[in-house]
Amino acid sequence: MIYVLLSVVCSVLVSVLLKLARRFDIDVGQAIAWNYVVASALTAAVLQPSLTVLREPAAPWLALVALGILLPTIFLALAASVRHAGIVRSDAAQRLSLLLSLLAAFALFGDQLTGFKALGITLGLLALLCMIWRSGHGAAERGGASWLYPLLVFGGFGMIDILFKRVALAGMPLGASLQAMFALALLVAFALQLWRRVQGQTRFTARSALAGVLLGLANFGNILFYLRGHRALPQHPALVFASMNIGVVALGALVGLLLFRERLSWLNLGGVLLALLAIGVIAWG
């Protein structure tokens, strides 16, 4: 379980780095772009994927290109969510995105709906509603950003999960698919930053590049340790799945509440607890 724990820490560390970006005058868009340089290089060095499968006629390029566009743009949405809604709600919304991939499994991939999964989906949707709900004062203070960005994170990561499933069903090895996605995401992310530079909205800085290196290490570490967790416990995929998702929600809640003093209503806290329960029910089912 040490790999799962390291994956959880890396996942929450991504949110922490995004939370600290404004405090240290880091351009999040640039950091995200450099993150994909690091993630792509580490994928090539550590996983050493064979890229010959990318030249095959059956290669799922439509899904890969969609992922290359979605990964950096939803990363930006996650950064905005962490800034406006906090780590607690953003991490929980990201993990609850599994509800969309679960629904897609029933609608698109022929999976069977069980009582446990239906209960988990219902609890998860209730959890999401509780987490994005803001009382009158909080809603007026932050406007729609405090609920809009967590919803974008929820929908965006759900779509990414569905596209990952499409790529996997096409028989694409994980290493090759990650290499292609990171390379495409790198191009999209830097195209966005170059456009901002031309518009005079930003300038490239060494500080943002260094933050991107740290972000890339945490992002790749999350993926690598999660994969090794599954490899170390091949007979217990549900345990790895549940431990990872529940661990991120729980650690994210502790970090957000204790380290950053994020203010949540009792309804928001209830949503976090419901999210933990929903993930556990889905894993059990």
UniProtKB/TrEMBL annotation:
<feature type="transmembrane region" description="Helical">
    <location>
        <begin position="239"/>
        <end position="260"/>
    </location>
</feature>
<dbReference type="InterPro" id="IPR037185">
    <property type="entry name" value="EmrE-like"/>
</dbReference>
<feature type="transmembrane region" description="Helical">
    <location>
        <begin position="61"/>
        <end position="80"/>
    </location>
</feature>
<feature type="domain" description="EamA">
    <location>
        <begin position="2"/>
        <end position="132"/>
    </location>
</feature>
<dbReference type="InterPro" id="IPR000620">
    <property type="entry name" value="EamA_dom"/>
</dbReference>
<feature type="transmembrane region" description="Helical">
    <location>
        <begin position="207"/>
        <end position="227"/>
    </location>
</feature>
<dbReference type="Pfam" id="PF00892">
    <property type="entry name" value="EamA"/>
</dbReference>
<feature type="transmembrane region" description="Helical">
    <location>
        <begin position="176"/>
        <end position="195"/>
    </location>
</feature>
<keyword id="KW-1133">Transmembrane helix</keyword>
<feature type="transmembrane region" description="Helical">
    <location>
        <begin position="266"/>
        <end position="284"/>
    </location>
</feature>
<feature type="transmembrane region" description="Helical">
    <location>
        <begin position="33"/>
        <end position="54"/>
    </location>
</feature>
<keyword id="KW-0812">Transmembrane</keyword>
<keyword id="KW-0472">Membrane</keyword>
<feature type="transmembrane region" description="Helical">
    <location>
        <begin position="116"/>
        <end position="135"/>
    </location>
</feature>
<feature type="transmembrane region" description="Helical">
    <location>
        <begin position="92"/>
        <end position="109"/>
    </location>
</feature>
<protein>
    <submittedName>
        <fullName>EamA/RhaT family transporter</fullName>
    </submittedName>
</protein>
<feature type="transmembrane region" description="Helical">
    <location>
        <begin position="147"/>
        <end position="164"/>
    </location>
</feature>
<dbReference type="GO" id="GO:0016020">
    <property type="term" value="C:membrane"/>
</dbReference>
